[in-house]
Amino acid sequence: MTTEHTSQNLTPTALCDHPEGGRFQEVWRSPNPVRSVDGRERSALTHIYFHLAPGERSRFHRVAQDEVWNLYQGELRLFLLTERGALTQVELSGPANTFCAVIPAGVWQAAEPIEGPALVGCSVAPGFDFEDFTLITADQPVTPHIRNHGLVRFL
């Protein structure tokens, strides 16, 4: 892994575009297999760096496994939405004294930097696979809730 570092900036340099928005770099995929609740074999754990520049957003998506977001740099706001429309906002930042958030499996999630770029690490267990990833579409039953909460910018 290559990283550029200055007193103002820590940015991995091998980032690729992510379908939800932003960029990512997988930094760990456990060689140990486990079975998910639906019986599919997955890595025990995966971890990525995920970067959002100012003005970028992570569109609403969900993952079939639990996910932990860890803040490395900047400030980030997460939006968590249940199928019934209950919305929770989590601020990852020094001022909020909150540096990680756990997203339960299947919860819709979106994110944006609060000010400046944000760099986080995301760990998924059992390990992430794009087969277990759903990006929001206009025909999802949860989409009207997103509109009702004024979060159309994350569609």
Task: Name a few traits of the molecule.
155 residues, mainly beta, Jelly Rolls, six-stranded antiparallel beta sheet, five-stranded antiparallel beta sheet, 15 strands, 4% helix, 48% strand
Which H/E pattern describes the elements? EEEEEEEEEEEEEEEH
Number of strands: 15
Assign the CATH class.
Answer: Mainly Beta
Structural class: mainly beta
- pLDDT under 50 segments (min length 5)? none
Rg computed from alpha carbons, rounded to a whole number of angstroms: 15 Å
Distance between the termini: 32 Å
Report on this structure.
- With 155 residues, the chain is mainly beta.
- It has a single domain, classed as Jelly Rolls (Sandwich), CATH 2.60.120.
- Helices cover 4% and strands 48% of the residues.
- A hairpin with a 5-residue loop joins strand 3 and strand 4 (23-29).
